[in-house]
Amino acid sequence: MRYIPEEVSAKLASHEMAYDAVKSALIAASDSATIFPVVLAHGSEPTNSYAIKSSAVAELAGLKVGSYWPGNDALGIPRHNSIILLFDQSCGRIRAAVEAGKLNAYRTAASNAVAANALARSDAQTLAVFGAGHQAEYEVRALARIRDLQRVLVVTRNPEKGTQFVSSLNEEGIAAELMEAEEACRVAEIIITVTPANAPLFDAAWVQPGTHVASMGSDSKGKQELPPQLFDRARLFCDLPAQSRQIGEFQHARDAAELTAIGEVLSGLKTGRSGDDDITVFDSSGLSVQDLYVAQTILDLLDA
């Protein structure tokens, strides 16, 4: 068994490699991949949770264990951590174990970037981001790599974190500022939510025609970031419809709501944005097949 520690996978991770791997994984998810039901569990303390996601494609099979320990904030370390296990399909033993704390952050942000590149208007330059935590930083940078962002509007309930986040982005040459939710939604052309919220973060009426909206934080039952009223005005996309209805943002959508897998858009089987006034919503509940592809990419880089 090959063991790739966090220090190694983190050094090899990048927005570019994650984007390519995740794009291929999302296409596979709507085509050849078998994706198994998510197992949600918790540690000795119920507030400490983890999820087991598993899948198989022709060339890869395995699983990811992703943990969320909110108390890690007090320790100065990320709340999220992950490890990916790839099976040797010839005998069922573990072929590789890849620690993926930082890699998972790149992978999650890549899903957002891939979807935004396919669904957001080509001239979209103003981004509103709800959340100022660890993952929000990766989301903004992944989008900035593929789109010419002129303004980043940060909406957060934690002014201290928000100020630090804005300062960090400005230092990198990404023009950012703090803004209240309503004003940010009304001027944004792309809105992303990266929070652990259990209730809508804004009013559906604030979202203007032509906006692309992405929920990145809803990945278990009860979580919610977007107002369901928005779904009636929008075209709805997600990484996997069945999973999104179970644990993603679209658990709050009407049963009759039409959900399109983003992989079908990427492969040309379905239409994405059909006009400049479309509101598009993308829900990323997170797929194991994405983890398999990025883990294999790490192994390939090590063998190159």
Automatic annotation (TrEMBL):
Pfam families attached to this UniProt entry: OCD_Mu_crystall
Transmembrane segments: none
Top-level division of the source organism's lineage: Bacteria
InterPro entries in alphabetical order: NAD(P)-bd_dom_sf (IPR036291), ODC_Mu_crystall (IPR003462), ODC_N (IPR023401)
SUPFAM superfamilies listed in its UniProt record: NAD(P)-binding Rossmann-fold domains (SSF51735)
Cellular component GO terms held in the UniProt record: cytoplasm
Gene3D superfamilies according to UniProt: NAD(P)-binding Rossmann-like Domain, ornithine cyclodeaminase, domain 1
PANTHER family given in the database record: KETIMINE REDUCTASE MU-CRYSTALLIN (PTHR13812:SF19)
Descriptive protein name: Ornithine cyclodeaminase
Organism (species): Phaeobacter inhibens
